[in-house]
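Please check the following for our workbook:

***
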Amino acid sequence: MDITYDPRCSMYLKRKTYYASYYLPNRVRICRALHRNKVLAKRMLHRKEKELLEGVFDDRDVLKMPEIQFSAESRLELPEAADKYLKSTSAGRKPKTQINDVYALKSLVGRFQKQYVDEVRLYDVQLLLNGLIDEGKSQATLKSYRGILKKFFGWIEESGLAEIRSPVTKKVVIPETTGLVRERLPSKEEVSQLVSDSCVVQPLIRFLAFTGCRLGEALHLEWNDIEKGLWMIRKKPECPTAYGTGWSPKWNKRR
């Protein structure tokens, strides 16, 4: 801003309404209505003077300042965009979901090898998913990741934080398979390596390997869940967890 710029405003009365008069840095004069009440009009005048002194210009000012209206805006970097998205959408998520989404989105964003949001194209999204396919990710995981990216870029587009069109469209292809999850079962050698490894949680590993129990179910299993060698996984609303009180099995289904 020009050091000779004077942000002072003057006030005058016209047809029972008080108006403000001031100059922009490009020496264009602005006149605008304030209020019919003199006290309120003075408050608005002083607030406007403070904004001008700090270099804050509203939409009406910018329209009269083409030299800044079309100036290059700072580009939004991918990590910063991810942080803004996660922070602004956290209210609707449970703590565990938030932790999972933070890990998944930041991991995916780091794979793009791009610095700015507006650099990511459909081609980049497809390459990312192709790489995950080569790593053996299941179709369910791929669809979940595509959904996360679609929500992320869609939010960036709608929020106006960056001038982009979401690169996640119907043209992003995930190969269809006969099932959503991996069909390959672990080999006998792999199971043997798991159960023979000496570690502190070996009893838990053996229990998971030989029963098919999920980790969360095993950690919340109680003696009264087992009767005559049979066990039933039930909801436990009073069970304390790291995310609060209450635990339930996947999809809230007993089994």
